[in-house]
Amino acid sequence: MKKKKIIIYGAIIFFLIFSFYQIFSIHSLIFDKEVYTVSDLILGVEGKGIDQENIIIRKGAEDSKKLTLSCNVDWGEEVLPDMLKILRDNNVKITFFVSGRWAENNPELLKAIAVDGHEIQNHGYGHKLCTQISVDKAKEEILKTEAVILNITGVKTTVFAPPSGDYDDTTVDLCKSLGYKMALWSADTIDWREGSTASVIKERILKKPLKGAIVLMHPKSETVKALPELIQEIKAQNIEIVPLYSLPL
Description:
transmembrane helix; Polysacc_deacetylase_ArnD
């Protein structure tokens, strides 16, 4: 009798565990979505088939001997003229991802970026994290910025750099529906972190694989100080610095 009770109790426990697993699995399939953040990118985590969708640009072809410097702009207008002069003096064109609110507040500087022949692309309007807002709000962030940049420069953006590299499957689907690519990076200056001096910034980048790299930077004073030597050392490795649209993928 005791043995029979043990069998019955065991069967009940097994049934409850199995039922819980089934419910959890169905819930995951219906409600869960994969989320990718900056830490994921640093660790090299890739989305399920996302790159195969041909939407995300993480880096260029490693045998191309070309590299892209990308600069995310939501502030830093006080140092951007110096950055532009350095780029001009070195005959280098890069890609600027600008936020819509920054563009509205700094139209003349945005025009100067365009006149110098740099690529201008989309960084969202208010620098909002894509996984923290609705898909409709994310769409508004992209399209509002597109309209602002188009109005000021006549340039229509086609590539979106999500603020802080924060995105999920919904963001990728949104970019696809809007005809946008999404740009990330393969080498990060981390120039916003405390202690990021010019020498530290330069060392962070030069120790990375540079062929086909997308180097992320911001308009910071120490980044501007690092830029001349960084450009020289990249060129010394026979690597050409090009805007993202010219980077072989």
